[in-house]
């Protein structure tokens, strides 16, 4: 996988800024212009991560440990999970269609949340409800306790939080499939590897850098924009299966 240094250098070469190429062994970026290029790289990375396709490298299974008497959980390592989520994380859903199923973001009434209770060998899928329905369940119940059968997830600004119903009467283990975008590439470690395909990222960052200079290559429908769209489409196409591209519902 391409590192932060390699991606920034690709953008610099595209700008003909050969004198600013970061040499191997340089771990920290301090030059103001290079920091701006790194900002463009991070902006491009985040936009591509959120462009609608859940990149396979960013899909993770998160194990959540529920405690007796506790209904709300922070999905971080310091909280109830074995993986840190972030403010851009999303739960994945199984899409039912005529060829089988695929996992991606919620987009239809046939979407089923990827969340299971795996406490015992009798695993079952936990039913997702809205945050407001979850609040209603707790406000109008008789303080029921038992094995949680419903959950709601939402962002608290830094990570994902989960609330369950009914209130757990003992320890339970849930497993969920989440899309967790990579954190920002830092100027203090140029060896960090990019998780998603590199070509669309550095090409979009190059567009942003050209736009900052007032160059027409940074404009929509420019040759560079078309090349970026081709690179993004090719990278997405390599990951998609026929099931991912099928619209019809399973009968």
Condensed summary:
By secondary structure, this protein is an alpha+beta fold.
Descriptive account of the structure:
- The protein is of the alpha+beta class.
- The chain has two domains: 4-50 and 184-239, no CATH class; 56-179, no CATH class.
- It contains five helices and 14 strands.
- The chain has helices at 4-14, 32-49, 131-140, 198-213, 223-239, and strands at 59-66, 72-74, 90-91, 93-97, 100-104, 112-113, 115-117, 124-125, 127-128, 145-146, 150-155, 160-165, 167-168, 172-179.
- Helix 1 packs across helix 2 and helix 1 (4-14) packs across helix 4 (198-213).
Jot down its keywords:
251 residues, alpha+beta, five-stranded antiparallel beta sheet, 29% helix, elongated, disordered C terminus
Strand and helix map with partners:
Elements: H1 4-14, H2 32-49, E1 59-66, E2 72-74, E3 90-91, E4 93-97, E5 100-104, E6 112-113, E7 115-117, E8 124-125, E9 127-128, H3 131-140, E10 145-146, E11 150-155, E12 160-165, E13 167-168, E14 172-179, H4 198-213, H5 223-239
Parallel strand pairs: 9-11, 10-13
Antiparallel strand pairs: 1-14, 2-12, 3-14, 4-5, 4-6, 7-8, 7-14, 11-12
Q: Can you summarize the main beta sheet?
A: 5 strands, antiparallel
From the alpha carbons, calculate the radius of gyration and give it in angstroms: 22 Å
Oligomer: single chain
Give the CA-CA distance, first to last residue: 41 Å
Task: Name the helix and strand elements from N-terminus to C-terminus, one letter apiece.
Answer: HHEEEEEEEEEHEEEEEHH
Beta percentage is 15-25%
The beta-strand count equals 14
Percent in helix: 25-40%
The pLDDT mean sits at: 91
The rough form would be described as elongated
């Amino acid at each position: 996988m391409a590192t932060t240094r390699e991606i920034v250098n690709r953008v610099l070469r595209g700008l003909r800024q050969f004198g600013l190429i970061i040499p191997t062994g340089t771990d920290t970026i301090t030059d103001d212009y290079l920091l701006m290029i790194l900002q463009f790289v991070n902006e491009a990375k985040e936009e591509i991560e959120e462009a609608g396709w859940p990149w396979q490298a960013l899909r993770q299974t998160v194990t959540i440990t529920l405690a007796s008497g506790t209904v709300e959980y922070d999905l971080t390592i310091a909280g109830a999970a074995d993986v840190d989520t972030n403010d851009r994380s999303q739960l994945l859903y199984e899409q039912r269609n005529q060829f089988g199923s695929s996992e991606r973001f919620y987009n239809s009434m046939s979407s089923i949340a990827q969340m299971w209770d795996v406490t015992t060998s009798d695993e079952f899928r936990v039913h997702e409800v809205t945050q407001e329905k979850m609040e209603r369940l707790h406000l109008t119940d008789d303080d029921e306790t038992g094995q949680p059968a419903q959950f709601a997830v939402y962002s608290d600004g830094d990570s994902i939080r989960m609330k369950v119903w009914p209130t757990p009467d003992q320890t339970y283990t849930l497993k969920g499939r989440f899309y967790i975008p990579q954190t920002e590439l830092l100027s203090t470690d140029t060896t960090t590897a990019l998780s998603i395909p590199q070509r669309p990222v550095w090409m979009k960052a190059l567009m942003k850098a050209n736009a900052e200079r007032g160059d027409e290559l940074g404009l929509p429908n420019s040759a560079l924009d078309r090349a970026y769209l081709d690179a993004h489409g090719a990278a997405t196409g390599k990951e998609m299966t026929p099931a991912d591209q099928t619209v019809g519902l399973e009968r």
